[in-house]
Amino acid sequence: MLRVVVMVSGGGTNLQAIIDKTASGGITNIQLVGVISNNKTVKSLERAKAAGIPAVSVSPRDYENRELFHQALLEAVDGFSPDLIVLAGFLVAIPTAMVQKYENRIINIHPSLIPSFCGVGCYGLKVHEKALARGVKITGATVHFVTEGMDEGPIISQKSVEVEENDTPESLQKRVMEQAEWILLPQAIDDIANGRIAVENGRVIRK
Which residues hold N(1)-(5-phospho-beta-D-ribosyl)glycinamide (predicted)? Predict the structure, then answer.
């Protein structure tokens, strides 16, 4: 049974998709052991509580500097003894020490088709603003393993979503979540939990 910790910053719609898929049997062989947020007031903590999942908040505002915050964040993660860490809309850069300690055991969902609209400064609604400004006709979402480089880890899966003529950043964000993110992330967790994928030579292979 894979012990999974989900890290979130906002409302937790991807977290809810994971909870729902686990409850329905769409994700098997996992235990959701914890939820961690950098924000004390977000709905994601309520979603965790409603599902009976232990949840904690570790906010950088509570620490004098980033180093102390990173130490506390890693301690919170370690406290759940996870086999897999899922960044489901976690908008704070995680410490290098965490990436190194949990190598190939951290995955992230990004709301674009990497390598488009990714990297430093590309997160949340900003990704969709950039996609619309560029005039792309196809966007989507990507699930990837996390490395020290921003959005540079091995890609697990991607799904495309069409951009519509009258899209706003908000409407595009909603459709990418519904048509790609909420599908890809639960599937990736299930694949990892059931040994269907592995990382070899910096690339994801399917067994």
Answer: 12-14
Three-point CA angle 158, 164, 169, nearest 5°: 75
pLDDT at 207: 86
pTM above 0.70, yes or no: yes
Maximal CA-CA distance, the chain: 47
Using the Cα atoms of residue 21, residue 54, residue 147 and residue 109 in order, give the sign of their dihedral.
Answer: positive
Residue position matching structure tokens 């792309």: 136
Q: List the binding residues.
A: 12-14, 66, 108
Closest listed residue to residue 153, CA positions, set 167, 139, 140, 142: 142
Binding residues for (6R)-10-formyltetrahydrofolate: 66, 108
N-to-C CA span, the chain: 19
Residue 110 annotated to the active site:
yes
The structure tokens listed for 98 are 């965490």
Model pLDDT for residues 81-137, shown as the tens digit of each residue: 999 999 999 999 999 999 999 999 999 999 999 999 999 999 999 999 999 999 999
Q: Report yes or no: 157 and 145 within 8 Å, Cβ to Cβ.
A: no
